[in-house]
Amino acid sequence: MRSGASLNEGRNAVVGAEEADAPVGHWRLAWRGPLRGGAYSILVDRRALAAAGLLLSTLLVASLAYLALGSGTLSLFEVVAALAGHGDPMAAFLVQELRLPRLAAACLTGAAFGVAGCLMQTLARNRLATPGIIGIDNGATAFAVASVVGLGLSLAPSAMALAGATTAAALAFGLAAGGGTRGYRFIVAGIGVGAVFEAITQLLLAKVAIDTANAAYPWTVGSLNARPAGAVALLAVGLVLGMAAALWLSRALSLLRFSDSVASGFGVLVARRRWQVLAVSVMLTGLAVAVAGPVGMVGLIGPEIARSLSSPRGVPLVASALAGALVMVLSDLAGRVLLAPIEIPVGIITAVVGGPWLLWILLRPAKRNLA
């Protein structure tokens, strides 16, 4: 009995030693495995965890404000009662049927844009390399508008938006030639591709009847008003899969911030991982544009907020998703209440806020690079 107790004490000592040897700024969570003598552990970045907790708490508060404020203002008690299916029937209808689905669309699209922006910026090692700036948004918009004005609503704009995002990314990558996804050559190629797709969108709208152009207008500015439930559900599935894939690629992403020789020296298959990261970013962007249209700057602001709060040691994927969702929720809330009962599309709000933010990023000295 004593020898068995000693063995257990030895295992506990091993686990305790692992906890004590955690790097600075981390917690090491260690536990004994099912196999005899097996011990497992994971590292948790304290600052990244605190940033995610802060962003999540802020998002919950913003979500409650989103459900309460609008053309018909509700109290917090009325919102909670409506979510539970109790209280005034009109308040329950307002919250459950009108505002809650729109809130879900805002959170999902914002998170998708945030993660896609973080992936693209890390891949290109440039804070300006967001899906909107390198033309992926415009490609998705052009294909979605084409499905509305040219082929009819029977062909899902969500599928066309995904195809457009893929086409734009492939063109930008091809035109960058030897530059790959690194540096300003990729960004300039993406800007050119985006300009071409934007011109195609305007041409399509100019050639159709005014009623058809009005039906396609929300796809050109970004709006969360009356979004298709099927597209939102597809985005939810895609976001779960994309987030899982991004987290699986997180170690490679951390190393891709350095030179190719360093990443290869740590066993990263650089070319393969780049294509995988690009594919996840394109998928998330296409699905988000299929729901909300080309909501610019969320993929820029969200990751920037996440990096300012998180540790520089890793890629802030979770924080970028939460920050993107927060930016989207607050922007759509502002669009609903600022000039009520007139509604400002969320894409206009993010452009107004994101323009000065972009200038601030360009003018201020960077405290640390993505590399």
Q: What is the name of the CATH topology?
A: ABC transporter involved in vitamin B12 uptake, BtuC
Residues in helix, % = over 70%
Strand order of the largest sheet: 1-2
Task: Supply the CATH architecture.
Answer: Orthogonal Bundle
Shape: globular
Element-level helix/strand string: HEEHHHHHHHHHHHHHHH
Number of domains: 1
Average residue-wise pLDDT = 80
Q: What's the multimeric state?
A: single chain
Distance between the termini: 54 Å
Fourth-level CATH superfamily: ABC transporter involved in vitamin B12 uptake, BtuC
Helix run count: 16
Q: Using DSSP, what is the number of strands? A: 2
Name the structural class: mainly alpha
Query: β content, as a range?
Result: under 5%
Give a structural overview:
The chain has helices spanning 2-20, 46-68, 76-83, 89-124, 136-149, 157-176, 183-206, 210-216, 218-221, 229-248, 250-256, 260-265, 270-292, 298-309, 317-337, 346-363, and strands at 26-32, 39-45. By secondary structure, the protein is mainly α. The protein has one domain: ABC transporter involved in vitamin B12 uptake, BtuC (Orthogonal Bundle), CATH 1.10.3470.
